Amino acid sequence: MNIRGISGRFAGQEFPVAGGIVIGRSSQGCNVIFPDNVRGVSRTHCKVEATAQGLTITDLGSSNGTFLNGNKLQPNVPSRLNSGDTFWVGDKENSFTVSGQAVPAQIVNSAPPMLNSSDFARPAPAVGSRNKTGLIIGAIAAAAVVIALVMIIMNLNNKVDAQNSTINAQNDAIQSRDAELNRQQDKIDAYNNKSNFEKVVDGVEGFFDIIH
Predict the structure, then answer these.
(1) Contacts for 71-75: CB closer than 8 Å, 24+ residues apart
(2) In 3D, which of 93, 114, 108, 102 has the Cα closest to residue 21?
(3) Which pTM was predicted?
(4) β-pairing, 54-59 with 66-68?
(5) What is d(CA 47, CA 15) in angstroms, rounded to the nearest whole number?
(6) Burial group, residue 13, by CB count within 10 angstroms (0-12, 13-18, 19+)
(7) 59 forms bridges with which residues in the sheet?
(8) Digit-coded pLDDT (tens) for 161-172
(9) Residues 6+ apart with CB under 8 A from 166
């Protein structure tokens, strides 16, 4: 059996019920898809399904209700559909009828793929693994930055240590030179403090040291 639009967006179009079709505004969950600006239609409004007992229609908890032959259906309670029955979704302008006529090939080919009731219980794709991967990548990047900073600091410390060693060696050389100058100055001071006689004696001793 088929359903055929008799007013509104899908007037004149027929859809085969080869398992189940969902009517609403969701492009991901519906087969008969209304535009978002259509009044009274929920994202997943109702479902028409072929069962072993025949064709049924179920309101999927829509905001404005599904009406079969003028009577509002109870949400999530299947109702039997017979050929010639009329139903509408939210507003009477969005009406359909049940037909047993054959559906033209081009309409069948253009109809969206049929969905089973299990498709609506399918959970959304998990994103935990992607989040975990992102956290791992972020942690690795942060660790790489820390390692790079540590290596830079260590390199700077080594340069500073080398410079300090050079400065210490230069200071040691300066201290050694100062000590030698002080010794020379002590000798000069000691000579200057001697009397003229002592200086003459030292000169004579120095002369004899040279000739010997």
Answers:
(1) 73/46
(2) 114
(3) 0.47
(4) unpaired
(5) 13
(6) middle
(7) 46, 75
(8) 888 888 888 888
(9) none
